[in-house]
Specification:
- The complex is a heterodimer of chains A (about 400) and B (about 250).
- Chain A has about 400 residues and is mostly helical.
- Chain A has two domains: about 100 residues, Periplasmic binding protein-like II (D-Maltodextrin-Binding Protein, domain 2, 3-Layer(aba) Sandwich), CATH 3.40.190.10; about 220 residues, MetI-like (MetI-like fold, Orthogonal Bundle), CATH 1.10.3720.
- Chain A contains 16 helices and six strands.
- In chain A, strands 2-3-1-4 form a four-stranded mixed beta sheet, with helices on one face.
- The relative contact order of chain B is 0.18.
- In chain B, helix 6 packs parallel to helix 7.
- In chain B, the strands form two sheets. A six-stranded mixed beta sheet of chain B has the order 6-7-8-3-9-10. Chain B has a four-stranded antiparallel beta sheet with strand order 2-1-4-5, with no helix packed on it.
- Chain B is about 35% helix and about 25% strand.
- The two termini of chain B are about 35 Å apart.
- Chain B is built from ten helices and ten strands.
- The chains are: A mainly alpha (about 400), B alpha/beta (about 250).
- Bound molecules: adenosine-5'-diphosphate and magnesium ion (MG).
- The site of magnesium ion has 4 residues of chain B, from helix 1.
């Protein structure tokens, strides 16, 4: 009977272990599968075509060039390797500027002919219109071949305009830099302070003080991040704006401060627990050799518990990099390449959270957000592997 | 010359009266053994000499302990300076998670010695003193944990000697070691006695007889008898001592 129960428990543990590993694996597979689709997706909106005059020599346009053309930042074909002709951007809605409603027909049945005619007439035109209005025969222009979004456009792109037409722009760089800036700032702020508190609690505070502090710090770890974000928005953001005399307080720095506060409890508790594992004999040996308490802390206790301290750091950084809500609330969410700490930035997690709701499933935007998720996943993975490696090297 | 002079020492862990009115004089360059059943206060008394008990919260000392004529519990005494002069070896070998070299150099480094050549010389000298040099000279950069228990304990002795103390306290230094390592350390104590004052706590009666000039027998927090080792072991004054050394209890 006893044996049977043991077998039962054993089986239960095996099943729950494999189920949870499998779930994690499935999540990762799902993430990569959805994200990988991005590079098989045309860079222009599906169901639309881009057409130019027959004499136009430009055969390829990147999403960024397209945006510049339709925004009027590029006005001549020679700027992008074509003839010296003024660019005439054309969207379907512009058609009524060229033709009257009668000419287009009562049921718009002549629209395809008219578009074709217009393209034939204007050497500098670039037309963006739904595929259904493309004249099947005798089209008097050249349809630009559709291109897929390329990895270099994504990983090297410096702009993030996911809803731009005719071609959305998914450039990772501003989001990546935003994430790194906010996270590094958070670590720089929280690490020295967190370790100092951990040392204080593990080695210096008497047990009454420690019994008082420990539950408070553990409580802090349990506060939902929205609450931290709210606190940041009402207290820290205005404070930063006033102190540094900025136009807006929602900056990378505000994000770092809020994240630092959030990462502190994790860093403190994990590092403190690690330092407490230092055997008493080790401490006594150091003190008996005439070392002061401080010398003992940084020459014996910290090296001894370095692997625990590094896991505290990894957990802290991990929380900082992956944190969404609080950062979303205080960083201003401008997807531009940051040039200083005191500018609005946008992080990868904040982008995913803010945009996933409005990105149609399976579309380029949706896939781009999944790819952001993959990037985030890889960053944290790389981080823990390298820290693991470093701390294994440190042990002699 | 009197090196250590304890006068009417009482020690309390909270309300527990661990040492009761102990007085003892230890002469320079001799070795003294503390014997007695487990829990009688040998370690507690030993750890008073380098103020190791200061680390334990809620303890209290009455009486005076003089080393070289100065009360080490006076207000002005700096504990880390005291501990440089009073080295200690613990029951279990407790090397640092550092290299063999750095273990021995540790005491010098924390005392602000920067001179590389001096550090190296001292490390070599200390390792030779404990007869460990030949065994480790090719692996000074290896972790101290790679050594055997006996080697680790000799390393810990070398570590204590490197800062040239005048007193060496040893709390059951061989209780975790095999007989061969034990006898090596006993030989060492014999050797070191010439230059250091040694106080050694031991469970092992033969060891006390072999290495010490004088022996103190403790029982339930009291120093029952203290005198020449030969006399304690052949002709003790107290019956309790007699019973202990003949193995009737303890
Ligand atoms: N840190 C401590 N807190 C409270 N009591 C202690 C502590 N250390 C030792 N004691 C008590 O003091 C007595 C003497 O201990 P100790 O000096 O270690 O004995 P010995 O070394 O002779 O075996 C024992 O009864 C022990 O329980
Ligand atoms: Mg003891």
């Amino acid at each position: 009977m006893r044996k049977f129960f043991e077998k039962l428990v054993e089986g239960g543990l095996l099943i729950s272990g494999s189920v949870s590993s499998l779930t994690i694996l499935l999540i990762v597979v799902f993430l990569f599968k959805e994200a990988g689709g991005l590079f098989n997706t045309p860079s222009t909106e599906e169901g639309y075509v881009l057409a130019v005059h027959n004499t136009n020599e430009v055969a390829k346009l990147s999403p960024e060039q397209l945006m510049d053309i339709f925004d009027g930042n590029i006005t001549n074909w020679k700027e992008i390797g074509g003839n010296d002709v003024e660019i005439l951007p054309f969207r379907l809605s512009d058609l009524t500027n060229y033709y009257s409603e009668e000419e287009l027909g009562s049921e718009f049945q002549y629209v395809p002919q008219k578009i074709s005619e217009l393209i034939g007439k204007e050497p500098g035109i670039i037309a963006f219109f739904p595929e259904q209005y493309l004249l099947q025969e005798h089209f008097q222009g050249k349809v630009l071949p559709t291109q897929n979004i390329t990895p270099s456009e994504f990983f090297g792109g410096t702009k993030w305009y996911p809803t731009a037409t005719p071609a959305p722009i998914f450039g990772l760089i501003p989001l990546l830099l935003g994430t790194l800036l906010v996270s590094i700032g958070a670590i720089v702020l929280s690490l020295p302070f967190g370790l100092a508190v951990a040392i204080y609690m593990a080695e210096i505070a008497n047990h009454r003080m420690r019994d008082f502090l420990k539950p408070i710090i553990e409580l802090l770890a349990g506060i939902p991040s929205v609450v931290y974000g709210f606190f940041g928005l009402v207290v820290i953001v205005p404070l930063i704006q006033k102190t540094f005399d900025l136009p807006v307080g929602e900056t990378a720095f505000a994000g770092s401060v809020v994240l630092a506060i959030m990462a502190l409890p994790t860093i403190i508790t994990v590092a403190e627990d690690a330092m407490r594992t230092t055997p008493r004999a080790m401490k006594e040996a150091s003190l008996a050799l005439g070392a002061t308490q401080w010398q003992t802390i940084y020459k014996v206790i910290i090296p001894y518990s370095i692997s625990g301290i590094t896991s505290a750091v990894v957990l802290g950084i991990g929380r900082a990099i992956g944190e969404t809500m609080a950062v979303l609330m205080v960083t201003g969410n401008a997807a531009v390449i940051p040039t200083s700490f005191f500018e609005p930035v946008r992080t990868i997690p904040a982008t995913i959270a803010a945009e996933l709701g409005e990105a149609p499933a399976g579309g380029a935007h949706y896939e781009a957000l999944f790819l952001l998720g993959v990037v985030l996943f890889l960053i944290t993975l790389l981080l823990s592997i390298s820290v693991e490696y470093i701390s294994s090297k440190r042990k002699i | 010359m009197i090196k250590i002079d304890a006068q009417n020492v009482d020690f309390y862990y909270g309300s527990f009266h661990a040492l009761k009115n102990i007085s003892m004089q230890i002469e320079a360059n001799t070795s003294v053994a503390f014997i007695g059943p487990s829990g009688c206060g040998k370690s507690t008394f030993l750890r008073l000499f380098n103020r190791m008990n200061d680390l334990i919260p809620d303890t209290r000392l009455e009486g005076k302990i003089f080393i070289d004529g100065h009360n080490i519990y006076d207000k002005g005494v700096k504990v880390d300076t005291l501990r440089k002069d009073v080295g200690m070896v613990f029951q279990k070998p407790n090397p640092f998670p550092k290299t063999i070299f750095e273990n021995v150099a540790y005491g010098l480094r924390v005392n602000g010695v920067k001179d590389k050549d001096y550090i190296e010389e001292t490390v070599i000298k200390s390792l030779k003193q404990v007869v460990l040099w030949d065994e480790v000279k090719d692996k000074l950069k290896d972790s101290a944990f790679a050594l055997s228990g006996g080697q680790q304990q000799r390393l810990c002795i070398a570590r204590a000697l490197a800062i040239s103390p005048s007193i060496l306290l040893m709390d059951e230094p061989t209780s975790a070691l095999d007989p061969i390592s034990t006898s090596k350390i006993e030989d060492l104590v014999h050797e070191l006695k010439k230059d250091y004052t040694i106080v050694i706590v031991t469970h092992n009666m033969q060891q006390a007889a072999r290495v010490s000039d004088k022996t103190g027998y403790f029982y339930l927090g009291e120093l029952i008898e203290y005198g020449e080792t030969r006399k304690i072991f052949t002709n003790p004054e107290k019956e309790s001592t007699q019973n202990y050394i003949t193995g009737r209890f303890g």
